[in-house]
Amino acid sequence: MHKDCERIMLTEEQLRSRVKEVALVVDEDYKDKSPLVVGILKGSIIFYADFIRFLSMPVELDFMAVSSYGSGAVSSGNLKIKKDLDKDVKGRDVIIVEDIIDSGFTLACLKRMLEERGAASVKIVTLLDKAERREYDIKSDYNCFIIENEFVVGYGLDYNEQYRHLPYIGILKRSVYEK
Ligand code: IMP
Ligand code: MG
């Protein structure tokens, strides 16, 4: 385990089996469709890569990078787009793939934005859900793990752009971000 982690919350094995389980449910639900699968950079990349490999329908891949101004009204105007989609979502069934839903602000804004652009449907797939932290009225349609309110890293998730490459989800030591 990395020296900055306090303990491993989710092992590689737990991630592998649960991601597969959730992806197969999505695969079944979208079997007659051809969704646009939108990964939110950068936190979702490892989850995204594992997730899409269980899908058997025709899928197109696209990516967005966003940063939120933190809080306020759920409007697309409160989300800063750092990298936009290549594809037009009009009439498409969109699946957003995100690492974690915390307050819910980012995903609430994103979902609204894609709906305003004319997507036929927008569903959300998340690896982690800090359910007790929710402040905005948004839910993940397909979530892998509900977790306690701990700051976690690895499997794509970062602290100051570090630790994304760790193959497990670890709880970051408080001393790392409180110093
Ligand atoms: P929300 O807009 O409050 O739902 O925040 C979601 C974003 O906060 C995620 O996309 C992550 O970038 C970040 N985040 C929240 N909790 C954690 C964590 O425990 N580790 C790493 N990033 C986190
Ligand atoms: Mg993120």
Structural write-up:
- By secondary structure, the protein is α/β, with parallel strands linked by helices.
- 24% of the residues lie in helices and 31% in strands.
- The chain contains 4 helices and 9 strands, in the order βαβαβββαββββα.
- It has helices at 12-29, 45-52, 105-116, 174-178, and strands spanning 5-10, 36-41, 60-68, 79-83, 93-101, 121-129, 142-146, 152-153, 169-172.
- Strands 4-3-2-5-6-7 form a 6-stranded mixed sheet. The chain has a 3-stranded antiparallel sheet with strand order 1-9-8.
- Strand 2 (36-41), helix 2 (45-52) and strand 3 form a beta-alpha-beta unit.
- Helix 1 packs across helix 2 (45-52).
- The longest helix is centred in the first third of the chain and has 18 residues, at 12-29.
- It is globular, with a radius of gyration of 16 Å.
- The protein binds inosinic acid (IMP) and magnesium ion (MG).
- Residues 43, 68, 98-106, 151-153, 157 line the site of inosinic acid.
For this entry, give a set of tags.
alpha/beta; six-stranded mixed sheet; three-stranded antiparallel sheet; 4 helices; 9 strands; 31% strand; binds inosinic acid; binds magnesium ion
Count of DSSP-assigned helices: 4
Order of helices and strands: EHEHEEEHEEEEH
Mean pLDDT figure? 94
Give the proportion of residues in helices: 10-25%
Biggest sheet overview: 6 strands, mixed
